[in-house]
Design brief:
The complex is a heterodimer of chains A (118) and B (108). Chain A has 118 residues and is an all-beta fold. Chain A is 0% helix and 54% strand. In chain A, the strands form two sheets. In chain A, strands 2, 4, 5, 6, 9, 10 and 11 form a seven-stranded mixed sheet that branches. A four-stranded antiparallel sheet of chain A has the order 1-3-8-7, with no helix packed on it. Chain A is globular. Chain B is mainly β. Chain B contains no helices and eleven strands. Chain B has strands spanning 4-7, 10-13, 19-25, 34-39, 46-50, 54-55, 63-68, 71-76, 86-91, 98-99, 103-107. The mean pLDDT of chain B is 97. In chain B, the strands form two sheets. In chain B, strands 2, 4, 5, 6, 9, 10 and 11 form a seven-stranded mixed sheet that branches. A four-stranded antiparallel sheet of chain B has the order 1-3-8-7, with no helix packed on it. In chain B, 0% of the residues lie in helices and 49% in strands. The chains are: A mainly beta (118), B mainly beta (108).
Chain lengths: 118, 108
């Protein structure tokens, strides 16, 4: 079955850059659309971005200036970089699979808690 | 962006009762591209309903979705103990994709 697993640091300092990776198993990353979503007590669930294996991307305008999403088809992984972190970026970050663009999220990773604090 | 407003914020019911959860959109949702997710503490959201009324794989038929335009409803016909959780609606018809703030279904 399809499984997704987030990895990365649990604690990052303000103004630094967050780098997260999602490892995908059970399906080729060369199909489907791959998403990052975060959840915080203050803002609830927030969609961040998606990428297709071709490299086609779409970002939430509220975060677009600080976010980069990329894919590594050889490793069946995709990644998120978020720059200029503040405490407001503290959240659980999820990766998720969608069957296409403008599509629901069919599979989710378990999530990784990222805390932004000095 | 499309804002989704869920009501009520909390719904207290007993096992065996019927639950109706509402999701209202600030603009019409394209092609009924609305999903419902269930989230339990410490877990990721789980897809229940997509395209407003289609059940995801493995979801019991006591869960049903309805609605179009700006008004959508998730109905749980007979609550079981494992159904007490937080439920979110999400629209994916127009980017940025957005979620409601959630309805907590708890045991009365």
């Amino acid at each position: 079955q399809v499984q997704l697993q987030e990895s990365g640091p649990g604690l990052v300092k303000p103004s630094e850059t967050l780098s997260l990776t999602c490892s995908v198993s059970g399906v080729s990353i060369s199909s489907y659309y791959w998403n990052w979503i975060r959840q915080s007590p203050g803002k609830g669930l927030e969609w961040i971005a998606y990428i297709y294996s071709s490299g086609s991307t779409k970002y939430n305008p509220s975060l677009e200036s600080r976010v980069t999403i990329s894919v590594d088809t050889s490793r069946n992984q995709f990644s998120l970089k978020l720059t200029s972190l503040t405490a407001a970026d503290t959240a659980v970050y999820y990766c998720a699979r969608a069957g296409g663009f403008d599509y629901h999220f069919e599979n989710w990773g378990q999530g990784i808690l990222v805390t932004v604090s000095s | 962006e499309i804002v989704l407003t869920q009501s009520p914020a909390t719904l207290s019911l007993s096992p065996g009762e019927r639950a109706s959860l509402s999701c209202r959109a600030s603009q019409s949702v394209t092609l009924r591209y609305l999903a419902w997710y269930q989230q339990k503490p410490g877990q990721a959201p789980r897809l229940l309903i997509y395209d407003a009324s289609s059940r995801a794989t493995g979801i019991p038929d006591r869960f049903s979705g309805s609605g179009s335009g700006t008004d959508f409803t998730l109905t749980i016909s007979r609550l079981e103990s494992e159904d007490f959780a937080v439920y979110y609606c999400q629209q994916y018809g127009r980017s940025p994709y957005t979620f409601g703030q959630g309805t907590k279904l708890d045991i009365k």
